[in-house]
Design a protein that fits this description.
There is one protein chain. The chain is an alpha+beta fold and 227 residues long. The chain folds into three domains: 58 residues, Arc Repressor Mutant, subunit A (Orthogonal Bundle); 47 residues, no CATH class; 96 residues, SH3 type barrels (Roll), CATH 2.30.30. Helix content is 44%, strand content 23%. The chain is built from eight helices and seven strands, in the order H-H-H-E-E-H-H-H-H-E-E-E-E-E-H. A hairpin with a 4-residue loop joins strand 4 and strand 5. Helix 2 packs across helix 3 and helix 4 packs antiparallel against helix 5.
Length: 227
């Protein structure tokens, strides 16, 4: 859990009950009590009025509340549609995160506004993206985030096999399939690889740097020039 998310959760937990001890918060958030003490201090410095009583626990000042999130109908529809798209076309981690987003928004919306989250009639349909491709999606997201090279066993549109080492730069969804835009070390050029044509994928320990002429911007420029 990111620290910003943990701080948000601490405030939400202190809103829901009168008192919580550092031990209770630490168990709930799966961190150490020392981390909770530090987070409570930082929240206090940022202006959140958390009151502590020795041997009792922490609570929020009764007059404190987070400012409500106010959305108009189109903003709610955009949010819900985006979440529904991720739930249909994302990997398991993205699906879980998408549902968590709606839960967090619903928790802080004024009660009179909550129905908007479920009332929108915009939906995203699944196009049978292969589960194998979605598993590759998760691995490639991690590789992009950590700037690690990836080894692929790949089949092209003629079903010809090859092995590639790539530097993954970005992921793109095209309605029925995901592709990874990458620099291919075999071809010494930018290439697009369909995730559903990857037979095997291994994230390597070898890292790479994003520096010209191999950056996401360089890839996008090359794709534009090709068209």
């Amino acid at each position: 859990m990111r620290r910003a998310d943990r701080l948000f959760q601490i405030v939400q937990l202190l809103r829901s009950r009168r008192f919580l001890t550092a031990h209770q918060l630490a168990e709930r958030l799966e961190v150490s009590e020392r981390t909770i003490y530090r987070d409570i201090q930082d929240l206090g410095r940022s202006g959140v009025p958390i009151l502590g009583e020795a041997g009792v626990g922490y609570r929020l000042d009764r007059g404190f509340d987070l400012p409500p999130l106010m959305f108009n109908l189109e903003e709610v529809e955009a949010l819900v549609l985006g979440v529904r798209m991720v739930e249909r076309w994302g990997d398991s981690d993205l699906r879980s995160s998408a549902r968590s987003i709606l839960d967090k928004v619903e928790a802080v919306l004024p009660e009179a506004e909550r129905h908007k989250l479920h009332a929108t009639a915009l939906f995203a349909m699944s196009f049978d993206v292969p589960e194998r491709a979605l598993e590759h999606l998760r691995s490639l997201r991690k590789a992009i985030g950590e700037l690690r090279k990836v080894e692929l066993a790949y089949r092209d549109q003629k079903d010809s096999p090859s092995r590639r080492v790539i530097r993954p730069l970005g992921l793109y969804f095209w309605g029925k399939t995901w592709t990874v835009g990458a620099y291919c070390e075999l071809r010494e050029d930018f290439r697009n690889f369909r995730l559903d044509r990857i037979d095997q994928l291994r994230v390597l320990q070898d890292g790479f740097e994003l520096s010209p002429p191999v950056t996401l911007e360089d890839y996008a420029r090359a794709m534009t020039d090709d068209h």
